[in-house]
Structure formats: C-alpha cells, structure tokens
C-alpha cells in the first residue's frame, strides 16, 4: 500500500515539474517554493518506500547524490554559467526520483540538455517564427533555461518508474 502512495506523491510532482519548466522557459526563474515543494514530495515518497522495504540505502543514496550535485554545480553558479534555481532543482531531483533511478535520469538529462543546446544554438531548426525569435533572444542574452531539460528528464523518469511498477509489481524501477 505504501508503494501506491509513494507513486502518487511522485505523480503529483509531474504538474509541478511542468510548471517549473514553463516558468523557467518564459522568465528564466525557478521559484524556491516550487523547489521546496518538490523536495517535500520527493522526500515523502522516498520515506514511504524506505518504510515499506525496510531498506534505507536508497534514501541515503538520494541524499548523497543531491548533496554531491549541489556542491559540484556551485562553482558554475559562481562563474554565472547556471542559475541558482537550476542548481537547487538539480539537487532536489535525486530525492524525487530515488537513487535507483539516477542512471535513467542521467541518460535522459544528457539527451534533453543536448537537444536544448542544439535548439538554442540553431533556432532555424524550429518551425514557428515567434518561437525562433524568442530562442534567438535567449541566445543573444547567453541564457539557457536548464530547468526545462531537468524537468523533462524528471517527468520521463517518474513516468518510467510508474509504468515499470505496474509491469513488475512490488519493485520500483529496475
């Protein structure tokens, strides 16, 4: 029963991640309250999974990965290469998806980051004129909304976890 509740908390994070992606794309800002809400949803989900299985290593792995990501990305913020919201969001994701899904998330994050960089550097690939003008504006400002690929990779990872839990009941992810 705790597995269903954990999946529900993860599923509740999907609309919030979509909101974060949209706001980061349009305003280049990620609100602290949104990141804090994601952290609460993720920590609650991981707590429920740990209580069900009696296995706390995954929660510890999530905490260690979140801390490592925060510390590793902090110098990029100091150099003004990424925003503080992007760093906080990235550090929150391991709590949201769990330690066992970090490999899936990493692969998807790489894929979506490459697509985002490609679109920002080559806006002529886009069909709509207004969208192309906006992307060119982002390119001139030197801003890349990294919250978009982070959110998309998180949403896809959560969806993969939900689907895999129905395919292989009793296990979350692999």
Detailed description of the structure:
- The mean pLDDT is 86.
- Helix 1 (2-27) runs antiparallel to helix 7 (147-167), helix 2 runs parallel beside helix 4 (84-97) and helix 5 runs antiparallel to helix 7 (147-167).
- It is globular and about 50 Å long.
- With 174 residues, it is mainly alpha-helical.
- Helices cover 79% and strands 0% of the residues.
- The chain contains 7 helices and no strands.
Keywords:
174 residues, mainly alpha
Briefly summarize what is shown:
It is built from 7 helices and no strands. The mean pLDDT is 86.
Distance between the termini: 19 Å
The number of helical segments is 7
Summarize the amount of helix as a percent range: over 70%
Strand content: under 5%
Structural category is mainly alpha
Q: What is the string of helix and strand elements?
A: HHHHHHH
Taking Cα atoms only, what radius of gyration do you get, to the nearest Å?
17 Å
Q: How many strand elements? A: 0
**Poorly predicted runs:** none
Taking the sheet with the most strands, its summary is:
none
Mean pLDDT: 86
What does the overall shape look like?
A: globular
């Amino acid at each position: 029963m705790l597995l269903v509740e954990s999946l529900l908390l993860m599923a509740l994070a999907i609309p919030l991640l979509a909101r974060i992606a949209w706001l980061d794309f349009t305003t280049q800002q990620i609100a602290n309250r949104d990141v804090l809400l994601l952290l609460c949803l993720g920590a609650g989900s991981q707590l429920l999974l740990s209580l069900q299985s009696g296995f706390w290593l995954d929660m510890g792995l999530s905490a260690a990965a979140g801390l490592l990501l925060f510390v590793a990305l902090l110098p990029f913020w100091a150099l003004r290469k990424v925003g503080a919201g992007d760093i906080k969001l990235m550090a929150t994701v391991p709590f949201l998806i769990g330690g066992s899904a970090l490999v899936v998330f990493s692969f998807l994050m790489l894929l979506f980051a490459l697509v985002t960089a490609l679109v920002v550097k080559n806006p002529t690939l886009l069909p709509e004129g207004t969208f192309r003008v906006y992307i060119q504006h982002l390119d001139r400002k030197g801003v890349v909304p990294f919250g978009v690929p982070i959110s998309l990779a998180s949403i896809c990872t959560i969806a993969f976890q939900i689907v895999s839990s129905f395919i292989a009941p009793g296990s979350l992810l692999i």
